[in-house]
């Protein structure tokens, strides 16, 4: 490491340029990763934040919520196995709502849930709904950007029903659309007409049943209901429309960025190593061990990658503070750690080509070249 530090101190301009390149590459990797995670969260946050680890839906729905239809009898069977408090029906419907006072029109997803169950939304502004509430709604905070606030009246264009916004929740999106929570009674009215509260509300099907259950209980529910299958939360998330295609494209882009970063850094250090062939030959002739020379090369890469990575993290967080709210960006601690480890690992992998070049240096030949 002494040799690595001494050389970097002597050739400040050369290694500063390399560090700038590494900083820009690592910043690009981190920024694209943050955008990918932000887009993913904007797509799935409503499902990801649910306190459910399994979902029951029709076996021919291809894991898609809106293609599934389940009855109240299915819900009763699931509750008898998992427990009443651990099984809750969920109805999903995409639509467009208008708000005359705000002169706004927005695409949204209705979530009809039991307001006393585990899927009841946690309100951060305003008041919560109850199952006896009629014509009330709790909306995602993204709708406030369109001027829809607590007390606003929104109208569903498909059914013509109007809802008064009673509360606001955060981080509740489905398929890149803000979620509007309504009661199951209003859902029945929306789908079947004027069904008064307290009447038989099992005539209109739900879409899925959210479960907080063990794997054995989930399998038992699927076994008792021959037209139903249970899937994990991760499987449900992957089946949200557009999620898989979007993330696969972004993940491929990130993977190519890692490969390009490793290739660029490998070329830079390989060229520098070639320029120092005579020095390495002299050091070998003096009896310097190959392990010491290898550690010198790897040490330089390790120092430069860690310093540039730290600087790029600061730059990324600074850039995030200036991004508009409409641009989703999210970098969690685990994502930062994984990305950082991969970047340093790819940098070290690229340094192996330089180490292989140093190993091939012939001391006598290098000394003869230096003397010429």
The gist of it:
The protein contains eleven helices and eleven strands. The chain has 372 residues and is of the alpha+beta class.
Structure description:
The chain is of the alpha+beta class. Helices cover 52% and strands 17% of the residues. The chain has 11 helices and 11 strands. The chain has helices at 2-10, 12-48, 72-82, 184-192, 215-224, 233-238, 243-275, 277-285, 290-322, 333-359, 363-371; strands at residues 54-58, 87-99, 104-113, 125-126, 136-140, 153-156, 162-169, 173-174, 177-183, 208-211, 228-232. Strands 2-3-9-5-7-6 form a 6-stranded mixed barrel. Helix 2 packs antiparallel against helix 10. It is elongated. The mean pLDDT is 85.
SSE topology sketch:
Layout: H1 2-10, H2 12-48, E1 54-58, H3 72-82, E2 87-99, E3 104-113, E4 125-126, E5 136-140, E6 153-156, E7 162-169, E8 173-174, E9 177-183, H4 184-192, E10 208-211, H5 215-224, E11 228-232, H6 233-238, H7 243-275, H8 277-285, H9 290-322, H10 333-359, H11 363-371
Parallel strand pairs: 3-9, 5-7
Antiparallel strand pairs: 1-10, 1-11, 2-3, 2-6, 2-10, 4-7, 5-9, 6-7, 8-9
Helix pairs in contact: 1-9, 2-7, 2-9, 2-10, 3-5, 7-10, 8-11, 9-10
């Amino acid at each position: 490491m002494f040799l690595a530090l001494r050389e970097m101190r002597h050739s400040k301009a050369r290694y500063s340029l390399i560090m700038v390149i590494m900083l820009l590459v690592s910043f690009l990797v981190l920024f694209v990763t943050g955008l990918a995670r932000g887009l993913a969260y904007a797509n799935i946050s409503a499902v990801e934040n649910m306190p459910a680890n399994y979902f029951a839906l029709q076996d021919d729905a291809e894991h898609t919520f809106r293609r599934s239809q389940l009855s109240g009898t299915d819900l009763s069977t699931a509750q008898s196995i998992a427990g009443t408090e651990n099984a809750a029906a969920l109805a999903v419907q995409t639509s467009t709502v208008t708000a005359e006072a705000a002169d706004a029109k927005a695409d949204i997803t209705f979530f009809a849930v039991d307001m006393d169950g585990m899927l009841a939304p946690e309100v951060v502004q305003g008041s919560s709904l109850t199952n006896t509430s009629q014509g009330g709604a709790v909306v995602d905070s993204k709708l406030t950007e369109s001027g829809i606030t607590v007390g606003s009246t929104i109208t569903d264009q498909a059914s013509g029903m109007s809802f008064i916004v009673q509360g606001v929740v955060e981080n509740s999106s489905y398929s890149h659309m803000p979620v509007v929570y309504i009661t199951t009674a209003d859902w029945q009215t929306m789908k079947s007409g004027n069904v008064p509260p307290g009447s038989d509300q099992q005539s209109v099907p739900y879409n899925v049943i959210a479960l907080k259950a063990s794997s054995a209980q989930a399998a038992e529910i699927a076994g008792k209901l021959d037209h139903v299958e249970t899937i994990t939360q991760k499987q449900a998330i992957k089946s949200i429309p557009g999620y898989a295609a979007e993330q696969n494209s972004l993940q491929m882009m990130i993977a190519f960025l890692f490969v390009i970063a490793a290739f660029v850094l490998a070329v830079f250090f390989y060229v520098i190593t070639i320029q120092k062939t005579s020095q390495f030959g002299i050091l070998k002739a003096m009896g310097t061990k190959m392990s010491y020379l290898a550690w010198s090369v790897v040490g330089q890469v390790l120092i430069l990658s860690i310093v540039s990575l730290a600087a790029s993290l600061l730059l990324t967080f600074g850039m995030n503070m200036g991004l508009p709210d409409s641009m989703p960006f999210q970098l969690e601690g685990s994502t930062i750690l994984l990305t950082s480890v991969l970047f340093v690992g790819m940098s070290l992998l690229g340094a192996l080509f330089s180490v292989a070049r140093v190993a091939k240096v012939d001391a006598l030949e290098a000394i003869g070249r230096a003397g010429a």
